[in-house]
Each structure stands twice: as C-alpha cells, then as structure tokens.
Amino acid sequence: MKFKKPAGLLLAALLTANTSFAAQAEENLYEPQLSYGAYVDTYNSESEGRLSPETNPAVRIVKDFFNYWEPGEDGFSGKRLRPDILDYDLHLLEKYTNERTPEQEASDYFDERRNYGYSLITGFGPYLPSYVEGSGIYTIQTELPEKGADKLPKRLTENPLGNPDSELGACVRFAEYLQETDLPSLQVVKKAFRYLRPFRRSDTVKLNPYVAGAVKKKSEKDYGYTSGHTMRSYLIGLGYAYMFPQRYQEFLTRASEIGFSRNRMGRHNCLDVVGGRMIGTANAAAFFNAPENAEMKRAAYEAAQSYLVPDPDAPDDFSDKEKNRALYTERLTYNFPTVGDTTKPMVVPKGAEVLLETRFPYLTKNQIRTVLYTTGISSGYPVCDDEEGWGRLNLFAAADGYGAFLSETVVTMNMQNGGFSARDTWGNDITGEGSLVKRGTGTLVLAGKNTYKGGTRIESGVLEAADRTAFGSGRVDVNGGIMAECVNGPFDILNSLEVSKDSVMVFTIGGPQDVINVSGRARIDGKLRIVLSNEWQPKSREILHAQQGIKGDFSRVQIEGLPVGFKAEVQKKGKGLWLMVKKENEENPNA
Fold first, then answer.
1. CA triple 255-364-375, angle to 5 deg
2. Does pLDDT of 4 surpass 80?
3. pLDDT in tens, 78-124
C-alpha cells in the first residue's frame, strides 16, 4: 500500500502518589541529593570489573536488591535476606509459566529472538504500514523451531531495523543507535548480583519449550538480575515514543509487554524486569540528554512527523487505553507487598524531563518535571526506591499530563506550532491546591475527574471540559478566551463562574441531562455559542443553573444545529438560563 506524504502532521494512575503535596515538593522537583553523581552524568564511565554501587552507576540504580539477596561466589551460594519477597517473586513466575497458552509461547519466543526494535514496532498501530514502507524494516525470524531444539536461529545483524538511506532513515539510525550502543556499566550488572534465573530456582517454573534446549549449561552462573531484554525494550521503546509521541503510551505498553514476556517464558524473575525497566529508562534519558545526540533525535522526530500517516484498516493491538494503563501500572511493581516507608516524597531524576519533551512541547522543563513528580508511584515497593527516582516514574501516567497542580500552573499553547501545541488532552484526575491558567491560541482538553482547588482562568485560546468535574472545585474565570464543554450529562462548576467581555462560552447540548450547574454565582457577558448535537430533541429547558443567581447577560448568542422548522432563543428565568424552543410561525414556545 502506498501512502501520501503530508507536509506535516498536527499533532490518575492506579498507583499515583503524593496527592497532598507538602512543602517538600519544591526541593524534590528538580534534583535529588545524591551520594554519587547523577546517572545522566556518569552513565558512560568505565566500570569493567567494578561491581559495587559506589563504582558502577547501573548497579547503583538497582542496588536495593542487595537488601533481599546477598551474592555468593555463584548463583547457588548466595544468601536469601528476604525469603518472603523472593518467594513471592517465584510464586508469580510459577503462575505465569503454568497458565500461559501455546499462542503466548510462540509470541514470547519471537520477542526473545527478534531484534528489540523490530518487536516494538507494533506500537505504531495504524501507522505501522506507513513506518514499514518508509523504513524498510524487516525480520528473518518468522518460523518457530522445534521445541527443545539445542540450537536457535541467529539474530539478523545487518540493518535489522531498516534502511538508513530510506525516507525514514533518520528514524532507522536513531533506533539502531539505541539498540547497538554498549554501556560499560551494563556488562557487569548481572555479575554484581549473581542471582539465578527463576527456572533454576524452582522446578515448578516452566521454561518456554522453544528455548528450553538452548539455555546455558553452566547453571550456577546463569544470572538473571537485571533483564537485558527489558532494558533494551524500554530504551528503544522510549526512542520510538520520542520520535512519534502520538503513540507514546502504546510504545510504553509494548515495552512492558516484552518485559512481561520474559516472566512468562520463565527466563526472568519479576524483579529482574523491574530493574531492567529502571536502567532502560535511565539510559534513554542519558542518551537523549547527550549533546552529541541532539541532531540525531531531532532528525528522527521530524522524519516521523512528516512521513507517517494512519491506515484505517490496519490492526491496533493497543487500542484499549484503559487496558493498557492497567497492564502497564501493574508491571511497574507487580503488586509486590510494600517493604518500606510508603510516604516518602517523590523525587525526579536529573534529566528525566527529556523523555517527555516531544510529548509536551509547550511545557517548560520544570513543568515537565512537575508532571513527573505528580504522577509517580508510591514509595515502599521492592527495588523501586532508588535515590534518583527512576523506579518510581510512571511515564504512562505522565503522558496524560499533570497529576496535581502544586501552585499556579500557566500553560501556553500556540496553534501555529502544530501538533500537541495546537491541541492536547490531559487524562489524569488532577488534584492539588494550585490553579490552572490557560494562555495561547491552542486548545487544551481536561478529561479527568479533577479536584484541584485553586481555580481555573482562561485568558486566551480554548480550555475544554470533557468530564463533569474537569475544572476542579475552584472559581472559573473566562477572561478573553473560550470555555468549552462536551460532557455527556451535567457539567459542574463547583464555585462561581465569570464570563467577561470578549470571552466565549461554548455549550454542547444533546440529551436531556446536559446542563451546567454552578454552585456559586454566575456573572455572564461576552458570547454564548450553543451547539445542538444530533441527539438533541426540540424542547425548551434549563441549560445553566447558578445556585446563587445570575448577574449580567450574554451580549451575543449563537445557536447551531437547529432542525429545520424550529427557532430558539436563550432567556434568563430565576437562577437559570433557559433555551426556549418553538416551531416556525408558532407564537408560544413549547415549555
């Protein structure tokens, strides 16, 4: 299938922590106090033979595992310091490996043998045919071996991720760089912990039969902590998400799926995968921050944005966002029991904001860090409480915007910049004491069940409510911009409403329950635009009710979508605004 290249494309998590942010927030937002250098500054240091957290930056990220396992000379001679946690991990592996289906065995095998970058491209969903065509990406791993075979097909090593000279060559080069770059510190992580793979520890953990005959024979040195497959999958997955953030959460879900496949195969413990996620995320931030990589990542982003178009007939394995959210969130911690303080404030790793800079091009670096801070997972889970904060990042939730407003939050979006700067949706349930100020010509949609208290002010552009409580519990002021709502049912303003001169309020009306409820007083001026949907039935009724009354009046009312043969006007009646409807040539409106 050929695709036409466009000139350009316009572009509450389950475990969210810190919903009542204290004064500690400010000091943790920017850079945690570290015993040693930040990972983004030290990741490429020579660490061969250095196995301690003090000398190896990758070991330092996942060093909490030393609290559960004391390494010995090999995998059998170590000491179990927390048998309860290690046994819980094995119990999960027994469950996953005994419940998997033949289809899952086959798909997990392909994730094992194919290049990481190729396995991840299903995250493109409807954009996948376009990406394949533009990049020339392919795989030779298309057939299953015999179960228990002693030798497995080799991975393709030349141009596995496509043609660097193709129209998406910049994307190919970026992905290949992420896949092929070796880090000295990573080569020794498994040696530092010397923790055996799960099928070595329990006879009830069933190894995937397609790889069972090809595992290492030296069982005493077959170490699993941490998972290299998971690390590379998150690293490259975040690379794809960077170049094409329209599918940010889908790529994250696919990366987590590949990590989980390591559990289901019996190849890795759950904590192996958690550690791999942490190191992979840290490496992505380190690579994206490196000045020498700036041009490569920019070129990859621009190529993807200018070339990729969706195929409406292409399948999308990640079309169910709430399912993706649930799976991704569970795999952050695997629902391990907490073992430490669950009230520690979130910290945001140095340089982590780069991971979302194409997802939120209209936010400042410190604003993105606040997004990361307000969407992180709770403290106390095994391995996750590293001092930099890599283990507690929830990038899926962060890709849905703020989890809380800590203070006045000014968001400036400009339509002329295109993409997410022209229109974006925040899907988290936003809490906090702070407020939201919307500026610029772009459109921001709030889709969460929000409870932030500081109020909402629209100065320019559009702020649209897609949930009944999208504007939180504070006062709503429309001071020159456009307030829009597209809620199916009542829309609540849980304080006062003021629509000033030169402002616009857009109200979409469909079913009989569509009404704006204002808990305080409504002061109205400016323009009211009413959009009647196809479900609207011609009948007069109240469309806005202010508990403490209405002052003023709209200077202009525009009604769109009236059926042929009907007229309508807006009238104030008591504490409400009514849409009065009548048939053409009918003197008395239908009450």
1. 45
2. no
3. 999 999 999 999 999 999 999 999 999 999 999 999 989 999 999 99
Q: Are 437 and 457 a contacting pair, CB within 8 Å?
A: yes
Residue 319 to residues 13, 324, 433, 467, Cα–Cα distance (Å):
18, 8, 34, 21
Q: How far is residue 21 from each of residues 180, 293, 347, measured CA to CA in Å? A: 41, 35, 12
Q: What span, in angstroms and rounded, lies between the C-alpha atoms of 182 and 235?
A: 12
- Residue 409 burial class via C-beta count within 10 angstroms: exposed 0-12, middle 13-18, buried 19 and up: buried
pLDDT recorded at residue 534:
86
Record the pTM: 0.93
Residue 178's alpha-carbon distances to 124, 237, 273, 357, in angstroms, are 18, 10, 19, 18
Report whether 233 contacts 281 (CB < 8 A).
Answer: no
CA distance linking residue 342 with residue 377, whole number of Å: 10
d(CA 399, CA 252): 10
Say how far apart CA 142 and CA 109 lie, in whole Å. Answer: 11
Q: 542 near 507, Cβ under 8 Å?
A: no
Of 130, 134, 123, nearest to 316 (Cα)?
Answer: 123
Contact residues for 58 (Cβ-Cβ < 8 A; gap 6+): 43, 47, 183, 185, 186, 189, 279, 282
* R_g over Cα of the chain: 27
Chain centroid offset of residue 80 CA: 35
Phi and psi for 101 in degrees, rounded to 5?
Answer: -100, 165
Residue 505: beta bridge partners?
483, 528
Q: Can you say how many angstroms the Cα of residue 57 is from the centroid of all Cα atoms in its chain?
A: 26
What was the pLDDT predicted at 16?
A: 37
Phi, psi of 504 (to 5 degrees): -135, 140
Max Cα separation, the chain?
95
Which residue in the block uniquely carries the two structure tokens 């097909």?
153
* CA-based nearest residue to 190, from 221, 152, 218: 221
User: What's CA 450's distance to the chain center, in Å?
Assistant: 18
Q: How many residues does the chain have?
A: 591
Nearest to 242 by CA among 177, 328, 300, 325: 300
Please give the average per-residue pLDDT across 362-391, as a whole number: 96
Calpha distance 273→260 (Å, rounded): 7
- Closest-CA residue to 75 (of 163, 191, 247, 243): 191
Q: For residue 583, report the phi and psi dihedrals to the nearest 5 degrees.
A: -75, 155
Structural domains of the chain in order of their starting residue, each with its CATH number: 95-149+161-341+356-361 (1.20.144), 402-583 (no CATH)
Are 209 and 109 within 8 A, CB to CB? no
Q: Which residue has the tokens 């009413």?
A: 530
Task: Indicate whether 194 pLDDT > 80.
Answer: yes
Per-residue pLDDT at 289 exceeds 70: yes
Task: Compute the distance between CA of residue 116 and CA of residue 99 in angstroms, rounded to an integer.
Answer: 25
445 contacts 464 by C-beta, under 8 angstroms: yes
Of all helices (H) and strands (E), which one includes residue 69? strand 69-70
Q: How many Å apart are CA 263 and CA 201, to the nearest integer?
A: 14
Which residue from 229, 472, 418 is spatially nearest to 306, judged by alpha carbons?
A: 418
Cα–Cα distances (Å) from 182 to 174, 287, 360, in that order, read 14, 12, 29
The residue-averaged pLDDT of 245-256 equals 98
Classify residue 51 by its DSSP letter. -
For range 433-446, the mean pLDDT: 98
And the tokens for 151? Answer: 């030798």
